[in-house]
Structures are given as C-alpha cells and as structure tokens.
Design brief:
eleven-stranded mixed sheet; disordered N terminus; YerB-like fold
C-alpha cells in the first residue's frame, strides 16, 4: 500500500471514530406517571373507597345506654333532641364499618330530613311510629331496621332492655348506596375565629359538653358531666363539631307517657357555629330541600371549611319565637 492509500485509510478510520463519538445518546426513560390522587370522602375530607356504601344507625344516648359501641368508627354523628329533653344519635358510616353498633333505637321524624341528604343510604333502627312509615319511604333511605332484618340484630351487652339491641353493621351496610355530596367543604383553617377550650349545648334534660383536646387535635365530649367513652375503648371524637341552630316543633306522635315527639327541622336555613382547630367560627347553614346538600358559609357568603376528619353535628334548638 502506497503512502496515499495509507493516509486515506487512516483518515477514514479517524472519521469513523469521530462519527461514533458524536452519535446521540439514547434518550433517558420517561418518568413514571404519578399515581392519581386517592378519592376523597365527601363525609370526612379524607381518602376513602367511594364505591363503599353508606350506613346510618340510630343510636341510644341516655345514661343507661352508655358507653355505646361503634361510635369510634363513625364518619359523621348527628346529636338530636328528642322527647323528654334527652338526645339520640344518628351515626353515619362509610369509610369504615365496625362489626357491631348500638344500642339501636327507633327512628324519629328529624332523621328523615337528615338521611335524605345522603342519597340512598341504608338506615338501621329498631322501629318507628306508624305515622312515619310514608316518610321513611319518601326519604330515599333503604330500610334495614330490625323488623325486616331480624338476622342482623341481637340483644346483648351490659345494658338492660330496651337499651341492649345491637346491629351487625357489616351485614346491613351493603344495602346502601355509595356516598353523595352532602355539602361539607374541607380545607385549611380559615382566618379569624375565637379560641375555645370548651363549650356546651343544653337540652331540657341533657347537657352535651364539647372540649378541645390539643394533644390529639380533636374535640371530645361529655354527656351530663361524664366523659363520653366507647365500649370498645377510647373516647369518640371529632375534627369538626358543628352547632347547627334549628327550629323544633312538637309532632302528633306521642310516647307511652303521653309526651309528644319533637321534630328538629333541618330543611331551611339558620345560624351555625363551626368548631375546629381549637377555634369557633360563626356562620350560617342552608338546606333548601331534603335531597339537596346542606351548605355552611361564613357571614360574607364564602364556604366555611371543616377540618378533615370525623364531623359531629349538634342540633341546637332555636329559642321560641
């Protein structure tokens, strides 16, 4: 090979090396897509399985019925005034359903406006006055009360009758539909608010105490001066407590003593106080029709957000007149 050929071959080799060195590197792999955010419960503002059904259980709350079973797992609890000046509870379950809830008691007219908020929940109760049968059917709730579902109820526990009826909640819950928007808004603590360590709501024969537990960042309760505890251990609590002022009326339904059952109206509007993060926030509530959401707003009309977590709503009778 002459000099010219050798030089040409060397040049080709050099260009081949340079070309190889300039070849583009393969692109880096595309980043893995971020997982979609977990679905958020319209009842608590926390992640949940939105396909899980809603179950509402009427729970006794007189002294001889406490401590109750199953309240620790409730997403929402309504405290309702009933005849005799005492209270009963409506406990709402969706994100978790305990095996047993009780003691279970009868449904009241007040409940039938409340449950309509929840779409088509399963509604567990011990019985009802005959006058309420049409209203139960109109409420949209699925009746899983003791008469049609005796397989899911039993007399048990430490309390004497009638405070010893308990529901197999996991057997009843599948009859309900998934949750709907009930109007609750969740978000960071709003500006303003008054610091509150404790407050109370009084019915004629019952006092419901509400205390801020800063170490746990939740509200806990007393009933007639005694801490509310759970039969399974611990103290039921809430991230948000709503004091919802409502009109109450007597009904034509009377108990065995001749006392008229009361009806707390939750369709309409009125004042509300929202307790969250150790503060009280003034606001209003509005519920224009039974099957629409109940909204809570600040005085300027903006939404009044709740703290994510369990919510207790105490229905506070408005003064007469």
């Amino acid at each position: 090979m002459d000099c010219m050929s050798r030089c040409r071959s060397a040049a080709v080799a050099v260009f081949a090396v340079l070309f190889a060195g300039c070849t583009a590197a393969p692109p880096p792999p595309a980043p893995a897509p971020s997982p979609p955010p977990a679905p958020v419960s319209p009842l608590t503002g926390l992640p949940t399985d939105l396909a899980a059904p809603v179950l509402i259980v009427k729970v006794d709350n007189v002294g001889s019925a406490r401590p109750q079973t199953g309240l620790m797992a409730a997403d929402v609890v309504y405290v309702e005034p009933v005849e005799g000046g005492v209270s009963r509870l409506a406990a709402v379950y969706q994100s978790q359903v305990p095996p047993v809830v009780g003691p279970v008691r009868s449904v009241r007219r007040t409940d039938l406006q409340l449950v309509a908020n929840f779409g088509r929940p399963a509604l567990a109760f011990s019985g009802q006055a005959p006058q309420l049968r049409p209203l139960i059917d109109q409420s949209g709730a699925v009746d899983v009360s003791a008469p049609p579902r005796p397989d899911a109820y039993s007399r048990q526990g430490p309390h004497s009758a009638p405070h010893n009826l308990y529901a197999d909640a996991r057997r009843l819950a599948p009859a309900g539909a998934p949750p709907v928007d009930i109007g609750f808004e969740f978000g960071p603590t709003p500006e303003g608010g008054q610091p509150v360590e404790a407050t109370a709501v009084s019915y004629p024969s019952t006092r419901i105490g509400i205390e801020w537990a800063p170490a746990q960042r939740r509200w806990v309760f007393t009933m007639d001066g005694t801490p509310l505890t759970a039969a399974e251990g611990g103290r039921p609590g809430a991230a948000t407590v709503v004091l919802q002022r409502v009109e109450t009326r007597p009904t034509n339904i009377v108990d065995a003593t001749g006392t008229a059952s009361s009806f707390a109206l939750t369709v309409g509007d009125g004042e509300a106080v929202v307790l969250r993060d150790g503060h009280a926030f003034q606001g209003t509530w509005s519920h224009p029709a039974p099957h629409t959401p109940t909204t809570f707003n600040r005085p300027d009309g903006s939404p009044l957000p709740f703290a994510p977590g369990p919510v207790w709503v105490v229905l506070v009778p408005a003064p007469p007149g």
